[in-house]
Specification:
alpha/beta, Aspartate Aminotransferase, domain 1, Aspartate Aminotransferase, domain 2, 2 domains, 11 helices, PyrdxlP-dep_Trfase_major
Length: 362
């Protein structure tokens, strides 16, 4: 058990895979366990979960710098992005970053039969190309290698009138954010927000709400959900709750314990911690500087073999875009850096030894 920023985590040494799955603080894991016991014992009530949905919603709003009334809850990033994509009129030109996570890009590409076009450009060219498009959709931090989008430039794009959708799944929880200027801000909770899978949120500006159809309209999206269970007419909430889905209860319980704690931290301090660890890791491996806790490392041998060797050494990372992806969160320490560096060097030596001597060309 480790302690970090005032909470305990059952995270093992060498766990550097938060960009895939975040490890919850003990208080969140225990809350979900209690709720499972209540469910199994017939003590749960449907209205009892409204508290957790509300607390998680408010904490997410705080984390991204928007009003609570601007936030809808969902189950995944792609489900929420899909609401936006399905609302676009025919002929809309969408701009995305080449190689971005497909939960951001696929929902738009799937609208091609309706005349919606989706174009990819390099991340660094996104702002310059925006004026020739009707909407920009991009991850604030790239999943594959941790590169950070030009948020200041995208804010200028939005202020000039081109709507911007940001996926902050790889940013919220370690990067201080104030995104009340963006039209849509989408985030899944199971990575850096240390919540169960099945929790996600989307903040919508007033302009975005005028352009987004609540395609998943349901009883829980009503102004008073317990009075919109049966019958017409349509009577949805006046704020962003009109885009809510019926919540994933257990996921919301966990989120309602992780997110308020995260929202109460000094995220500038969290950012310094995780970026410091990533910087030391890069320096030990002779990699260039970076501004993200996600580090992409060329594999010192065939990736499946290297992954097996790292796992055997107690190091957990991911394989992404032909490289090894390591990610450092607030519960990681220098001990994780040392173990990962040692394991990588050992795997490189073993791969070289197994390859045998390289003979000179005839």
């Amino acid at each position: 058990m480790r302690s970090a920023f005032g909470q305990d985590f059952a995270v093992p040494v060498g766990y550097l895979n938060t960009a895939s799955i975040g490890i919850p603080p003990a208080l969140a894991a225990e809350a979900v366990e209690r709720d499972i016991r209540d469910w199994a014992g017939g003590r749960s009530t449907a209205p009892g979960y409204d508290r957790w949905v509300g607390e998680a919603r408010a904490a997410f709003a705080s984390l991204v710098g928007v009003a609570t009334s601007d936030v809808a809850e969902g189950a995944s990033a792609s489900q929420l992005v899909g609401l936006v994509a399905a609302s676009l009129p025919p002929g809309t030109r969408v701009l995305t970053a080449a190689g971005d996570f497909t939960s951001v890009t696929f929902p738009f590409a799937a609208q091609r039969d309706r005349g919606v076009t989706t174009e990819e450009v390099e991340l660094d060219d996104l702002v310059a190309a925006a004026e020739d498009h009707d909407l920009v959709a991009v991850s604030a931090v790239q999943s594959a290698d941790g590169r950070i989008a030009d948020l200041a430039g995208l804010r200028a794009v939005a202020e000039r009138g081109t709507p911007v959708l940001l996926d902050v799944t790889q940013a919220a929880g370690w990067l201080p954010l104030r995104l009340d200027w963006a039209d849509w801000v989408v985030c899944a909770g199971y990575k850096w927000l240390l919540s169960p899978r099945g929790s996600a949120w989307m903040a919508l500006s007033e302009r975005a709400r005028s352009r987004t159809v609540p395609h998943a309209a349901n009883w829980y999206a009503g102004e008073d959900p317990w009075r919109t269970v049966y019958g017409l007419p349509l009577r949805l909430a006046a704020d962003a709750r009109a885009y809510d889905i019926s919540p994933v209860w257990l996921a919301q319980v966990g989120a309602a314990h992780s997110l308020p704690w995260l929202a109460g931290l000094d995220l500038a301090e969290v950012s310094r911690h995780v970026l410091g660890l990533a910087a030391r890791f890069r320096a030990e491996l002779g990699l260039g500087e970076g501004a993200s806790p996600i580090v992409s490392v060329p594999a010192p041998g065939p990736i499946p073999e290297v992954m097996d060797l790292l796992a055997g050494a107690g190091v957990r990372c991911a394989q992404r875009a032909g490289a090894l992806r390591f990610s450092f969160h607030l519960y990681n320490t220098d001990e994780d850096v040392r173990r990962a560096v040692h394991a990588l060097r050992a795997s490189g030596s073993r791969s070289a030894a197994e390859a045998g001597p390289v003979s000179a060309a005839p």
